[in-house]
Amino acid sequence: MKLRSAASLSFTLIALALSQAAHADATLDRIKSRGTLTVGVVLDGTYGSLDPQTRKPVGYNVELAEDLARRLGVKFEAVEVTPPNRVQFLQQGKVDALIASMQYTKERDEILSYVPTPFEEIGGSAMVRKGAGIRDWSDLRDKPVCVSQGSNYTRPLIEQYGAQVKGFKGMPEALLALRGGTCVASVHVTPGIQARLANTSGEWQDYESPMPNQLIPSPSVIWVRKGETDTVAALDKIVKEWHRSGFLIDEGNKWHMPPSQQLLAWHREYSAK
């Protein structure tokens, strides 16, 4: 009886392994047979937004996703996601991949797979009202700080700096809470903060980003469902070509997001190969 149970268990494990292997190929095969790559993008005004005329998604992350589809030889479909639902959309198969303001973290790595070659390195910056007396991350101790739900800045803000973090649906909502006095600072990806402060006569003219360094600079990567090795391999080749050709630098400059020093280093590395 024990031998039969062991054999049954071995058969189950083998079947599971074969099922996982088949699943690894499923997304890339489905993309090609369907003729469309579906990518989840965040449209909060930092890396993407809705064009007011066409009501279609435009922006940095949208154009990266578009180029992925072009290089795979398929059409492109953008699906709007938010920080609270982006992982769920990916796991439920509503999108094939995410280019959605998601830097690499160990926690995300445990539930998703990612393209190993990053397309940028980005950290967090804080927006605060001028004259608030906040000049460094340590000044946030015991103070309320706004972030987007699911932000990877939540843990270091709490554990390293003792901030009282408040999560909101997305960056626009968190910044609105800052303006309303709910928080003393709002922490998000640096390009999003820089873009809003660039217009010195706009609605953020009374605010600044005074921190001397970025919070946890991390690789920006493309995420897919766990175990999809074929999809990862196909997308990784494209990202490496992006670095070699300078495509990412051109896209960043086009959307007023100057390349990081790390991105420039990756371009030198891959163009030399």
Automatic annotation (TrEMBL):
<feature type="domain" description="Solute-binding protein family 3/N-terminal">
    <location>
        <begin position="36"/>
        <end position="259"/>
    </location>
</feature>
<keyword id="KW-0732">Signal</keyword>
<dbReference type="Pfam" id="PF00497">
    <property type="entry name" value="SBP_bac_3"/>
</dbReference>
<feature type="signal peptide">
    <location>
        <begin position="1"/>
        <end position="24"/>
    </location>
</feature>
<dbReference type="InterPro" id="IPR001638">
    <property type="entry name" value="Solute-binding_3/MltF_N"/>
</dbReference>
<protein>
    <submittedName>
        <fullName>Amino acid ABC transporter</fullName>
    </submittedName>
</protein>
